[in-house]
UniProtKB/TrEMBL annotation:
GO MF annotation, one: ATP binding
Residues holding ATP: G25, R88, C89, G118, D119, G120, S121
Keyword Lipoprotein: no
Annotated binding of Mg(2+), by residue: D119
Free-text activity regulation comment from the record: Allosterically activated by ADP, AMP, or fructose 2,6-bisphosphate, and allosterically inhibited by ATP or citrate.
Pathways per UniProt: Carbohydrate degradation; glycolysis; D-glyceraldehyde 3-phosphate and glycerone phosphate from D-glucose: step 3/4
Subcellular location: Cytoplasm
Enzyme class: transferase
Family membership: Belongs to the phosphofructokinase type A (PFKA) family. ATP-dependent PFK group I subfamily. Eukaryotic two domain clade "E" sub-subfamily. Belongs to the phosphofructokinase type A (PFKA) family. ATP-dependent PFK group I subfamily. Eukaryotic two domain clade 'E' sub-subfamily.
Domain Phosphofructokinase: 17-324, 405-701
Organism: Cryoendolithus antarcticus
Protein name per the record: ATP-dependent 6-phosphofructokinase
Amino acid sequence: LTPPAMAQPPPAMSMKKIAVMTSGGDSQGMSGAVRAVVRQTIASGCIAYAVYEGYEGLVQGGDLIKRMQWEDVRGWLSEGGTLIGTARCMAFMERAGRLTAANNMVEKGIDALIICGGDGSLTGADKFRSEWPSLIDELVTTGKRTAEEVKQFKHLNIVGLVGSIDNDLSGTDATIGCYSSLGRICQAIDYIDATALSHQRAFVIEVMGRHCGWLALMAGVSCGADFVFLPENPPSENWEEEMCSVISKHRKLGKRKTIVIVAEGAHDRQLTHISPDVVKDLLSNRLHLDTRVTTLGHVQRGGTACAYDRMLATLQGVEAVKAVLEATPETTSPVICIVENKIVRKNLMEAVKMTKDVAAQIAAKDFGAAMAGRDAEFAEYWQAFHITTSTDTEHLKLPTEQRLRVGIIHVGAPAGGMNAATRAAVAYCLARGHTPVALHNGFPGLCRHHDDKPEGSVREVEWLDAESWASKGGSEIGTNRDLPSADMEKTAFCFEKYRIGALLIIGGFEGFTALSELRQARTKYDAFKIPMVILPATVSNNVPGTEYSIGSDTCLNALIDYCDAIKQSASASRRRVFVVETQGGASGYIATIAGLSIGALAVYTPEEGIHLKMLVEDIKFLKDQFAKDKGSSRTGKIILRNEKASKVYTTEIIANIIKDEAEGRFDSRFAVPGHVQQGGTPSPMDRVRAVRFGVKSLQFLESFTGKTKQQIAEDPASTSIIGIRGAKVKFSPMKVIEETETDWKQRRPKDEFWMQLTEVVNTLSGRPQSALHR
Ligand code: ATP
């Protein structure tokens, strides 16, 4: 995530009073957003308030508008829902209610409000702001307030944060809560999968989303569903036939189970509701499948937030406070959004209007416009879903001479999403008439195959082979760390022998290095004068050319689950600080983002190193924290240390030093989650992005068809890396990335975008600046 540029220091109006509120339906991550707003407000020298129970609290006032202290929000990142409550408030819909709310705010001296909620809540907020001057006037004319009392309340600052599970606000790629909710859905479907497979059953699963099919579509993509029903894009007029035809084809190809996902607001093109029961009857009566319906309901709102939502809530909460502090009376109300990996401010009312437009377009049966009203990513996922599930692809096939034999190879350690990416690439190849060829067990596998000729090391993949890989962890085609340079001659020979016409590498820094070697070996071997692309996949997220590698999100989720569990154990026993060792090689990304997501006290990275003064200052800070915590039940504290942060200060040594220095006031232990960090089942984010990048990579390789070997060799773009860079998904030529952006010695990008986030971790934990300087 790219944080926005640092805010200016707060202007002269110090001790500004900023209130935060959660409103509308709850979502995972809202409590994390409140924590970030409260702490950033206090860290900026201002006073923080929380409005309890949404607009109801604003209208009722009194104790429902409460001053918040730093300690009040301790541990909130690990809590689900919203700890300050939320409500739907009819009184606020009326001017009279808003007048009372304004009076309550003046009474407390609050002149800035940060609202985390859906489009309804944000609309209410904007209305409040636009009416504010007239509300203030009315308070004076009706004698509720004197002119003197309202003098400093001429303007109200409003900033929106989008908290919603169904990701329905236009302008942002993700809302706070949507990936956690998707996680709940995928977990349930993964469970259902096992029983469906055992009994060869069909399941129709209803998910939330009255006007927005994001959850249904993403669940379909990440779980490899057979059919999805979305409000924005209903199936054809003849949808009963269409669905039955797709599902019976899948069954004929050998699939033992069927999953159909229905969004709550699904309908046909005439807007007649499509209920899960209607779908069930069709599957039972027409296809004679043993079919069950599962409505997931409020489970989707439940549980704690996933790593991404915690990070989003934190960074957006921080950004919201900065937006308040930078606002002038002329600034339009912003809503804090995320585009790919960049936190941005957008015009709140424009985003709300676009959202409402989509609902209106659906109601007017203008489904093309409704799809266009969602972000570009949505359409790409829709296309990816179709390509990976549809077997009726004759119309998509390329002319024979443009078809490729595409080698797919995994390099390096396994990472969540490798299989999903491979499945998508295979399905794309088959849809377009290319031949997907799995090169099993990395480059050594390819070369060994040539020596020993074992069956199956280089294998053309069928649709059914890859079909079940959407949610699988590990590497189904096998992976290996060894590089082609171990035997370049033989590698080239094998490329020719198996007529590899394009190559997709899925892997981490080793995969990156392998592609670099192949590119440079082109001068010697014609076999490598083919289009080649790497799809970054590694838990460490240390591949140059991208800010995100598949697998890193799975790793972060595994780490935060681990840390939440040990934190809990500490609160049940003694006052304890855990020093947790993370993976990541020489990149502190995983440690830092996990630190951001669990509210770590400090994060030790290889980039910053560890020195004696740092430890001394951090131990002082710990003593201070434990002293303040007296009587609190949430006393487990975490320091994250990357495995390569220091050669001298190992994780165990740090834990021992802390224990010794604590002199019995608290305890310290070290913990090493190790390979737990590779995660079991990949996270939904890794799965969906794997599918999207898999399809995009194949489209990229395909764009070189018709070019001669010479033309390909001369085109630097013909060996590229796909990655997220700021607000964009881009293919970057390897030559440029290798030569200008790679720190080969440390095996990481020269410029790591996330380094700026260490400041957020430190600010929100209250870690003293003195710890950072030798
Ligand atoms: P969800 O995504 O769960 O629907 P939401 O924020 O859209 O969240 P709503 O129920 O639409 O949820 O709105 C929450 C509250 O915001 C309402 O109960 C009301 O108090 C306030 N609100 C909504 N729309 C308006 C409006 N037009 N004017 C004033 N207040 C409003």
